[in-house]
Amino acid sequence: MEKVLGRGHALTLNTVNNLDILYADRGQLDEVEKMCRLALKGMEKALGRDHTSTLHVVNNLGILYKRQGKLDKAEEMYLRVLEEREKALGHDHTSTLRTANNLGFLYRKLGKLDKAEGMYRWVLEGREKALGPNHTLTLRTANNLGFLYRKRGKLDETRGMYRPALEGYAKAPGYENGRCHLSVILLLV
């Protein structure tokens, strides 16, 4: 593709970016980082820093850095994507919320629990508006927030998140296993 379209063509760069999945599956994370950086450099040059395809590559780098344990770099990537998506798509767009959720998970992992809680609350409110209270992504966010509350010892808040999640999962088709998992958690709380 590079010979036909050129190194800087968007389709060539997308192919380079997609190769990261293959390398990641093989555990070759250093190779994935090289491919992502190459794709990012080309995307920024060809499409601009704030183009959705460029932001997709930045988000992939954030995921990669999280997997590598480079959490500060992951945070930097997620914050960039969040800022650009919020500007371009809005505060409650599902893509913006997905990035905020990734950042919430990262903050939880970093022990920045106040920041994690803020992200999860934002995502939960946005997903309830955009997708409804019983959508599986909304329920998963409520579960994540419940887990965070449990970790912080806020048991009443934990129950307040887990109960609606459990009830929602009970109504969702194909989520019998998730329902059982949440039931066990509720018994532990």
TrEMBL record:
Q: Name one GO biological process term.
A: microtubule-based movement
Query: Which terms are listed as keywords in the entry?
Result: Coiled coil, Cytoplasm, Cytoskeleton, Microtubule, Motor protein, Repeat, TPR repeat
For this protein, the parts annotated as crossing the membrane are none
Name the PROSITE patterns for this protein. TPR
Provide the residue intervals of the TPR repeats: 55-88
What GO molecular function annotations does the UniProt record carry, in alphabetical order? kinesin binding
**Which Gene3D superfamilies did the record assign?**
Tetratricopeptide repeat domain
Instruction: Using the UniProt record, give the first listed, main subcellular location.
Output: cytoplasm
Q: Where in the cell is it found?
A: Cytoplasm, Cytoskeleton
What name goes with this protein?
Tetratricopeptide repeat domain-containing protein
| Natural source organism | Zopfia rhizophila CBS 207.26
The upper taxonomy is: Eukaryota, Fungi, Dikarya, Ascomycota, Pezizomycotina
